[in-house]
Amino acid sequence: ETGMFTYDPGFTATASCKSAITYIDGDQGVLLYRGYPIEQLAEHSNFLEVAYLLMHGELPTPTEFKAFEDEITHHTMVHESANSVIKGFMHDGHPMAMLISMLGALSGIYHNDLDLDDPEQRRLAAIRLIAKVPTIAAASYRHSIGFPKSYPRNDLDYASRFLTMLREVPSEEFELNPVAAKALDLLLILHADHEQNASTSTVRLVGSTGANPYASVASGVAALWGPAHGGANEAVLKMLKEIGKPENVASAVEKAKNKDSGFRLMGFGHRVYKNYDPRAALVRKMTHDVLAQLNVNDPLLEVAMRLEEAALKDEYFVQRKLYPNVDFYSGLIYKALGIPVEMFTVMFAIGRTPGWVAHWLEQQLDPESKIGRPRQVYTGAVSRDYVPVDKR
Ligand code: SDX
């Protein structure tokens, strides 16, 4: 212990940056995007309006929103040359791998628009990322089922456009259920930003070196992929399927309390929320509404509800303040919308892209922003002399 630095494995003790974008109070279960409570945005706003708010700091006037929406719509296509990247993947490659690679490829396509000292080029990169991530995501999934990419229908809203691109039938034949589009739009709002989580901190750390926004966001997607972070929504579904029936819930809870089992209740716990994740409360309610409106009777919902009920009553979880987080129920809604489980974390990435680009833009504008350089508490050997190989 050099005494110079405090060791904190989760970086929660030291503020890595200043930001005006999102505020979280983990003890009170409060989440504000630019000062607006997530509950009010969930009830009154839409995903693109929230994306505008995160980027610009204020809610848009009708004229500002129309211009923003038109610009996003204008940039939904992905250059054909980038599509060969997806074709280079085995069909069953994970769509998150394709998303990471495609975002890197965008750096190569827009290399003439990467003068980061030009505010207009920075803003355009942010627009392109928000507009193109869903198109790339849909193309990745369609590649995995051996389908050609689909083209974005720009007569649709953001969520409807994505669901239509994902479909396995020609988009002009696909009848979109408005309940599905509204549910997806709300889930995207709830995932749009979350302060300095692992992936956003990664975007800021990479961005702090002067790397371009496509590479910075690609690094955020890579960080999000882990099951401890955005990969949790996919892991929750796998866990619920493994538990299978409500009668198996009690043994699953017992197993999760035994650290040697290596089994955790995925979708439970949080680095910051030591109270109920406000997003989880909204997703939980939404799950019941959406499955009822879509007439979906998913037996895993009963397993999830019994698991939550059992854990919230169990001393181990209560003592450790382990509550369901945003990932616990979201997968059940994605499943009801017909989105395959391997796309769940990609859905999280689509939602989080406005947050990532808002943080990247904020950092570019911060005159005090310096290159990120975390330090360590050194626990290795003290200084010693080299030993020739014949003396070892
Ligand atoms: C997201 O940071 C963000 O904001 C992230 C996010 C966002 O919007 O960007 O909110 C999205 O990533 C949500 C989290 C999704 N991950 C999961 O659901 C995976 C399952 N949860 C965990 O692995 C865990 O809870 C973490 C990763 C979320 C937090 O892990 P920590 O930091 O180890 O949790 P902790 O320090 O609060 O743990 C305290 C105790 C420990 O036991 P003790 O050593 O005190 O005996 O609780 C235990 C942990 O072992 N524990 C769990 C558990 N989570 C923590 N035990 C069983 N099941 C769990 N899920």
Which sheet architecture does the biggest sheet show? 3 strands, antiparallel
Give the names of the bound compounds.
Answer: s-citryldethia Coenzyme A
SSE arrangement, N to C: EEEHHHHHHHHHHHHHHHHH
- Helical fraction equals 40-55%
Low-confidence stretches: none
End-to-end Cα distance: 29 Å
- Content of β-strand: under 5%
What is the number of strand segments? 3
How would you describe this structure to a colleague?
This protein has 17 helices and three strands. Helix content is 54%, strand content 3%. The protein is mainly α and 392 residues long. A hairpin with a 2-residue loop joins strand 2 (30-33) and strand 3. S-citryldethia Coenzyme A is lined by residues 10, 194, 197, 228-230, 232, 256, 264-272, 320, 322, 325-327. Residues 10, 194, 197, 228-230, 232, 256, 264-272, 320, 322, 325-327 line the site of s-citryldethia Coenzyme A (SDX).
Q: What is the topological layout?
A:
Elements: E1 22-25, E2 30-33, E3 36-37, H1 38-44, H2 47-56, H3 62-74, H4 80-87, H5 95-109, H6 119-144, H7 158-166, H8 178-191, H9 198-207, H10 213-224, H11 232-243, H12 249-257, H13 278-293, H14 299-313, H15 315-319, H16 327-336, H17 344-365
Helix pairs in contact: 2-8, 2-17, 3-6, 4-5, 5-6, 5-10, 6-7, 6-17, 7-8, 8-13, 8-17, 9-10, 9-17, 10-17, 11-16, 12-14, 13-16
Structural key phrases:
392 residues, mainly alpha, three-stranded antiparallel beta sheet, 54% helix, binds s-citryldethia Coenzyme A, Citrate_synthase_bac-typ
Short structural description:
Belongs to the citrate synthase family. The chain is an all-alpha fold and 392 residues long. It has helices spanning 38-44, 47-56, 62-74, 80-87, 95-109, 119-144, 158-166, 178-191, 198-207, 213-224, 232-243, 249-257, 278-293, 299-313, 315-319, 327-336, 344-365; strands at 22-25, 30-33, 36-37.
